[in-house]
Amino acid sequence: MIEDFVAFDFETASGKNPCSLGMVEYKNGKKYREFYELINPEVAYFNPFAVQIHGIRYEDVQHEKNFAERWEEMSSFIEGKTLVAHNAKFDNSVLLYSLQRYGIELPQFNSFCTLQRARKLVRLPSYKLSSLANFFEVPQFHHHNALEDAFVCGELFLKLNRLEQELQLQQEHGVEFPSSYLDWIAEKQGQNVQIRRKALASFSQLFGGLRFVISGNFQNFSRTEMQKIITQNGGRVTGSVSGLTNYLVCGTEPGQAKLGKARSTGTRVLSENDFLKILRVL
C-alpha cells in the first residue's frame, strides 16, 4: 500500500494557468509537511466562473511570484515523488503545461488519481471531492482552497488504498475473511453505494488530457509499445503535429516535417530519454 506520496491541487485563473497551489506530503501514511502559495499566472483574464469557485482575483496575485519563480520551493515536493490528485488529468495538465511554458526540465514523478480510483472501487451518486470526503468522513472546511483540497485528497487516497487492500485480502482468503473496514463501508449501503470488487488495478493519469505525436526509431520501445504506454496513462496519440499537440516524442531519424511543425507551433520536443524520465524508468 502506498503511504509515501504528495497530494496536490491547483486552482487556475483561466485554462491551465495556475493562481494557487497546495501540496501535502505524507510519510508512512501520516501528514509530514505542506506547501501553499499564490501564483501569478501572468495572464490578464480570470475566468469569472473560476473566480466564483475559488475566490482568487487578479488583484490578489498580480504581485506574487510566477510559476518559474516558485519552482525552487515546489520542486522538492514533486521531483521523484508519487503525486496524487483528484481528477489528476487536469492537475497534471496544469503542471506539465507550466513546466513547458517556462522551459523547466521535466521532473520524475509517478501519478495517481483519487477520482478514477474511487470510481473503480465504489459506486456512488457523486464522485466530487466534497461528496467523497463526506462519504468517507474526511473533515473538510474550505472546499476549493488548494491546500485544503490537497489534504482532503491525501486522506481520501489513504482510505481508498485501505479499501483496495481489504478487498484484495478478501479475494485471497475468501468472502468470509473478517474486515471491520468493509463492514463500515457496507453499513453505508443505504446511501446507494456498492463496493466494486473486481476492479483493483492502479490507474495512472500521468498523461491525462495530453496529445502526443511519435516520430523516429526508438531503442527501448517499439512505436506500438510507446503508443500503448501513452494511452494507458491517459494520453492520446495522433498522427500529425498541430497547434493542439503537447509533445512530439522523437527517436532517431525523426520526420523533419514533424520537427518543423513542432517548432512553428511551440510543441515541446521530447527525446526518448526525456520520455523515460517522465516514466521514472531511467
TrEMBL record:
InterPro entries: BRCT_dom, BRCT_dom_sf, Ribonucl_H, RNaseH-like_sf, RNaseH_sf
A GO CC annotation given for this chain: cytosol
GO MF, any single term: 3'-5' exonuclease activity
Name listed for the protein in its UniProt record: DNA polymerase III subunit epsilon
Role description: DNA polymerase III is a complex, multichain enzyme responsible for most of the replicative synthesis in bacteria. The epsilon subunit contain the editing function and is a proofreading 3'-5' exonuclease.
Domain BRCT intervals: 202-282
SUPFAM superfamilies membership: BRCT domain (SSF52113), Ribonuclease H-like (SSF53098)
Xref: Pfam families: BRCT, RNase_T
One GO-annotated biological process of the protein: DNA metabolic process
Organism expressing this protein natively: Zunongwangia atlantica 22II14-10F7
Record's subunit section: DNA polymerase III contains a core (composed of alpha, epsilon and theta chains) that associates with a tau subunit. This core dimerizes to form the POLIII' complex. PolIII' associates with the gamma complex (composed of gamma, delta, delta', psi and chi chains) and with the beta chain to form the complete DNA polymerase III complex.
